[in-house]
Amino acid sequence: MANVLEIKDLHVNAGDKEILKGLNMIVKEGEIHAIMGPNGNGKSTLLQTIMGNPAYTVTSGSITFNGEDVLAMPVDVRSKKGLFLALQYPQEISGVTNSDFLRAAINARNEKPLSLFKFIKEIDKGIKELKMKEDLAHRFVNDGFSGGEKKRNEILQMMMLKPYIAMLDEIDSGLDVDAIKLVSDAIIKLKEETNMGLMVVSHYERFFTSIKPTHAHVIVDGKVVVEGDSELVLKIDQDGYDWLYEELKIEPVKENKPMVYSLGTCARNKRA
Fold first, then answer.
1. Handedness of CA 9, 50, 213, 36 (dihedral sign)
2. Is the dihedral of CA 126, 127, 130, 131 positive or negative?
3. Which residues pair with 141 in a beta bridge?
4. Could you give the CA distance from residue 23 to residue 228 in angstroms, rounded to a whole number?
5. pLDDT value at position 205?
6. Is the dihedral of CA 221, 256, 179, 158 positive or negative?
7. What's the rounded Cα separation, in Å, for the pair 155 and 175?
8. What are the DSSP calls for the chain, one per residue?
């Protein structure tokens, strides 16, 4: 059975402010969805809500994965089911090495613990593929990392965990041209090996050109206002969003300041 993430009429608040206002989307395995839109309109909120950030409150609507209620799952269960979020602002975890962190995460998802030999082989392969420092496995998670190193470390985690649906929140920001190619190549390779589905937030057409989206969605004021494919990505890159505001007769939403959160327990749901 194909893995399917389905979002229906999703309404989400951050504090007293409504961010998502009836958003709908379906993501299937093997698909690459470009999530676009001006800043402050709900793209990151969508990904954070799917993964269970407690800073966001679901007031109505549903998120299901293979027919199961995602909103009823704690964050760790969402991960075990095969959902993954690469953070826009990865956090530092002093005192925990990358190897301990990753091996614990992998073993929590598997019925049998991954052998040390196989784990070392896989993490070394990922480190070389992403051209990261050889001592990465023994360094504390993101501690003292540059912005680009943190983003590549998120991709390394994705490569090791092999999710069914991966969400990438501006994973390309802070990366130079060479690093963007490394990251995009690693994403495509994993997608071809595992047939995972992808939800990708980015403002850069260059990154989308590298990963070749099969679907594109533009979110404005908490709703998907237009959908398409890679041609829509190209049009947004060339013409911006003004044509969309005029065509749909909508007002631009003022940008909110970025909010940095750590993942905690399941996103609160007022229906429960």
1. positive
2. negative
3. 93
4. 16
5. 84
6. negative
7. 12
8. ---EEEEEEEEEEETTEEEEEEEEEEEETT-EEEEE--TTSSHHHHHHHHHT-TTEEEEEEEEEETTEEGGGS-HHHHHHHTEEEE-SSPPPEEEEEHHHHHHHHHHHHSSSPPPHHHHHHHHHHHHHHTT--TTGGGSEETTT--HHHHHHHHHHHHHHH--SEEEEESTTTT--HHHHHHHHHHHHHHHHHH--EEEEE-S-HHHHHHH--SEEEEEETTEEEEEESHHHHHHHHHH-SHHHHHHHT-PPPPPPPP------SPPEETT-
Which has the minimum average pLDDT: 90-104, 146-160, 237-251?
237-251
- For residues 46 and 257, the model is more confident at 46
- Measured in degrees and rounded to the nearest 5, phi and psi for residue 27 equal -125, 125
Q: Which of 84, 65, 60, 52 lies closest to 10, judged by CA?
A: 60
Q: Which amino acid is at 173?
A: S
Q: What would the pLDDT profile of 183-234 be if each residue is shown by its tens digit?
A: 999 999 999 999 999 999 998 888 999 999 999 999 999 999 999 999 999 9
Other beta carbons within 10 Å of 133 = 11
The dihedral through the CA atoms of 232, 238, 242, 243 has a sign that is: negative
**Interacting residues of 88 by C-beta distance below 8 A, sequence separation 6+:** 44, 169, 170, 171, 173, 201, 258
According to DSSP, the β-strands at 197-201 and 32-36 are parallel
Residue 263 has pLDDT above 60, yes or no: no
- Rounded Cα–Cα distance for residues 189 and 47 (Å): 22
